[in-house]
Amino acid sequence: MKQIVGGTLSDDPATLRTNFVSERSGAWFAELYKRDGLTGGHVIMLGPGNEPAAREALAAYPGGLQIGGGINLNNVRGFLEAGASHVIVTSWIFREGRLDLDRLQALGAAIGKRRLVLDLSCRRRGGEYCVVTDRWQRFTELVVNRVTLERLAQHCDEFLIHAVDVEGRGQGIDRELVTQLGVWAPIPTIYAGGARSLADLEEVTRLGCGRIDLTIGSALDIFGGTGVRYEDAVGFNRRLASRARAS
Predict the structure, then answer these.
(1) Fewest CB within 10 A of the end CB: N or C in the chain?
(2) CA 224 to mean position of chain CA atoms
(3) Helix crossing, 230-246 with 198-207: angle to 10°?
């Protein structure tokens, strides 16, 4: 298990920057999340050779984890049968920098939109946030905005959106992007990138008007970080769920 700095993953290993490399297996983390009733965790296969470890994690927590990285029409059913609740797809539904609607519809027909998460991770270009693919190295023509999200929401269960420019840097969230997502997103949306403290959890909840969830990676103590204790993050999640049930 690795925590990477956003935008440094490429075919050249010399460019890769990591914050943390764990000696524990993906299955160990899966069992921890299962113990604490955390659903929707992301298992991302960052290149070749990771599938056996990913499958071990899915087997350790059937129905509790989502999987991404190299997902396509040929392998998608296999990962769902292995225990994934959802598959996360990005690059395969783009060709030559453009969204391939035929591929997206084919995935939906094969597994149903309720099992599909679209990764619309983006980087700022000019005054817009553009989706990036191929390990976050290639800009596409797709802009993250209200029109895009409303159109794509018809084809998936939720969105996963990394703010790649701040991902893995622990320097704070992209407040502008979170605020916009809180206004635009018509379905459950997960924001990732830059979280460094519990205050960021509270800020995403506030800026996103309670409609945007946050993933924390590098800041967590179980991932080598010092900004957030895992137990505190679990407690925050439970308090938020309790308030939602009471409202």
Answers:
(1) C
(2) 19
(3) 30
State how far the alpha carbon of 23 is from the alpha carbons of 2, 45, 124, 220, in Å: 9, 17, 34, 15
Question: Within 13 Å of residue 61, how many CA atoms lie on the same side as its CB?
Answer: 27
Token pair for 108: 């939906």
- One DSSP character per residue, 99-149 reads E-HHHHHHHHHHH-GGGEEEE--EEEETTEEEEEETTTTEEEEEE-SHHHH
Q: Is residue 231 scored above 50 in pLDDT?
A: yes
| pLDDT value of position 1 | 43
Written as six digits, the tokens of 25 are: 């297996």
Q: Look at residue 67 and tell me whether its pLDDT is greater than 80.
A: yes
Q: For residues 7 and 123, is the Cβ–Cβ distance under 8 A? A: yes
Structure tokens at 140: 């596409």
Superfamily of domain 2-246: Aldolase class I (3.20.20.70)
- What tens digit of pLDDT does each residue of 6-57 get? 444 445 545 444 555 668 889 999 999 999 999 999 999 987 888 999 999 9
Q: In 126-239, which ranges are E strands?
A: 128-133, 138-143, 158-162, 189-192, 212-215
Both tokens of residue 107?
């995935």
Tell me which residue of 181, 185, 223, 224 sits closest to 203, measured CA to CA.
181
Q: In whole angstroms, how large is the CA radius of gyration of the chain?
A: 17
∠142-146-151 over CA atoms, to 5°? 70
The domain limits of the chain are 2-246
pTM of the model: 0.88
Helix crossing, 175-184 with 198-207: angle to 10°?
40
